[in-house]
Amino acid sequence: MNLPHPTDRARWLAPQEVLFLGAVILAWAILVVSLGKDTSWDFRNYHWYIPYALLNHRMGFDIAVAHQATFYNPTLDIPFYLLANHFPAWFALGILGAVQGSNVIPLYLTARSTLRGEDNRTLATILTMLCMTGGLTLGLAGTTYYDNILSVLTLTSLAIVVTNRERLAAGTLRQGMMIALAAGLVVGCAVGLKLPQAPFALGLAGALAFVRGSWQQRATRVLAAGIGGLVGLAVFSGYWWLEMYHVTGNPLFPYFNQYFDSPLALSASYRDLRFIPTTWPHRLLYPLLFTLDWRVADDLAYSDIRVVLAYILGIATIPILIFSKSKRGQLVDAGAAAPLFAFAAVSYIAWISVFAIYRYILALEMLAPLLVTCAVGLWPLSRRVQLTVLGVLGVLAMAFTRPGWLERAPVDDPYVQVKLPAIPNPDHTLILMAGEAPMGYLVPSLPHQIPVLRIDGWMITPEDGSKLTASTKKHVHYFKGDLYLIAEDYEIGRATEALEDYGLTMRYPECQEIRANLGGPYKFCPLERLTDNKP
Fold first, then answer.
1. Beta partners for 486?
2. CA distances from 191 to 237, 245, 360 (A)
3. Which of 29, 37, 523, 525 is 20 to 30 A from 516 via CA?
């Protein structure tokens, strides 16, 4: 029996397939609108503030409002910020949900191209739905962490490789270069938008290296993908790195400052190293550990066994993939399984070495059911036994799936609602923030002419000795207008101590409240000077 060429199967979509993909995207949009607005820590800290700061030229006008995230590349946040400011909230959320739901497209194309058989659409559809319903995949629906948007790019780059594997293996060097260049460009854009996507760029190189072909073909593909990746990286990060280097002396400010040595920050990495395993047993067992307890690898709750199943079964299948010559009974194409396993393995090794934060491998959670299918599908078993095993594993995966739904706010307009006390003299007012609470989202609702300086938090403390702190103290010391503080009620004690280092104190009986729809309430307190301390 002559089977359809795998790449031919993935190239054209039947009307019912288009309908399935469209229905999933629409369902995801409806789900996101029904869940409501994202009130996550990160949204309140910087996802609403940094696009506003970029579009209103507030770099250097405000200081450390969103802690380290004040200096993140804001490009990824701009589209939703503009949508939510210029359209109804339900529409902005619906578009966000539709884009997040678009992960279904590369997942389905990859699944259909990987599965063997004349009509694999039904199995590919079931498999794709398992890919789209992981614990954190569901839990992040409608949030602005954006890992589930960047995964669209990451998975698309992989789909380009898998669905074109025959061209990569048997085509000309030029054809292979162009395919690899396109895949590299797509994943490079993802990295440029958010650096924690970098492990997937390495994973793509691994996938290209494991597609069949001569060493010359493999080397050429990887080189072409590297060039495409650098172009994508430069398009979305180049301008921001140049700006950060000009302003701070560190293109990745404040990260890796022990190497760049910007005087504005301490000589430290500023990275979150809490989750990185430090011993080999810990590294080897890490998927099992974070499956048993999500706190091992993330701050966001979820329950899911997909990744650990893919990890265990993938390792068990390596000898079969390497040594088995028989294709009889195989449910999947070994030529597709090899780059899929290579992509996952290289991405995972890079991730656990640098980040080890589960949210950053969301694309692997999505890909895990396909990896499990590849593993079982290569075992020397009958088709019926393979499908039975996969059915049992699929039921188990769904049974152990528990999305950690984040708290949401009602879908009403405007998107961010902040009720401010009267500020009698906004043209001559300076507002300070203190504490670790995320409050950046309040700033766009303040009178735009008021600078906002955070004097204490994750990035900056009154006695840290950095030039950024010295600049902040100098700014406060020489300011001649009205001074106010914004702080969470539970951090008033910490704020009081920070203010003392600036020669300031709160007029606490005159404190009022700022009320907002996504958090708070927050204390809004007038300040007065204790002494005439020099900065």
1. 433, 524
2. 8, 19, 12
3. 29
Residue of 60, 61, 466 whose CA lies nearest to 264: 466
3-class SS shares of the chain: helix, strand, coil, % to 5: 60, 10, 30
- How far is residue 88's CA from residue 207's CA, in Å, rounded to a whole number? 42
Instruction: Find where tokens 């955070």 sit.
Output: 454
**Sequence-distant (≥ 6) Cβ neighbours of residue 365 within 8 angstroms:** 134, 135, 136, 137, 304, 306, 307, 358
Where residue 346 falls among pLDDT bands split at 50, 70, 90? very high
What the block records as the tokens of 502 is: 């600036």
HSE-CB of 22 using CA atoms within 13 angstroms: 7
Say if CB 299 and CB 292 are below 8 A apart. Answer: no
67-77: average pLDDT: 97
Contacts of 172 (CB under 8 A, 6+ apart): none
**Residue of 480, 465, 475, 468 lying closest to 502 (CA atoms):** 475
Of the candidates 146, 142, 140, 141, the one whose C-alpha atom is nearest the C-alpha of residue 74 is 146
- Which residues make Cβ contacts (< 8 Å) with residue 97, sequence separation at least 6? 28, 29, 30, 31, 32, 33, 141, 142
Nearest residue to 94 via CA among 142, 138, 40: 142
Q: Which phi and psi (to 5°) does residue 267 adopt? A: -80, 80
Q: Are 265 and 254 in contact (CB under 8 A)?
A: yes
Q: Are strands 504-506 and 522-529 parallel, antiparallel or unpaired?
A: antiparallel
HSE-up (13 A, CA, CB side) for residue 197: 30
401 and 303 in contact (C-beta within 8 Å)?
yes
The residue-averaged pLDDT of 297-307 equals 96
Report the Cα 260 to chain-centroid distance in Å.
25
State the Cα–Cα distance between residues 495 and 508, nearest whole angstrom: 12
Between residues 10 and 215, the one the model is more confident about: 215
Distance of CA 93 to the CA centre of its chain: 17
Task: Using pLDDT thresholds of 50, 70 and 90, give the confidence band for residue 1.
Answer: very low
Closest CA to 308 of 330, 328, 286, 293: 286
For the chain, how many residues are written? 535
Query: What is the β-pairing status of strands 452-454 and 408-409?
Result: unpaired
Taking a C-beta distance cutoff of 8 angstroms, is the pair 515, 529 a contact? no
In this prediction, residues 136-141 reach a mean pLDDT of 98
Cis bond upstream, residue 254 (ω within 30): yes
- C-alpha distances in Å from residue 268, one per residue of 172, 256, 277, 293: 48, 6, 20, 30
Tally the C-alpha atoms within 13 A of residue 161's C-alpha that lie toward its C-beta.
37
H runs (alpha helix) in 432-491: 467-478
251-275 pLDDT, tens digit per residue, is 999 999 999 999 999 999 999 999 9
- What is the torsion angle, in degrees rounded to the nearest 10, for the CA atoms of residue 102, residue 105, residue 107 and residue 109? -170
Q: Convert the pLDDT of each residue in 190-208 to its tens digit.
A: 999 999 999 999 999 999 9
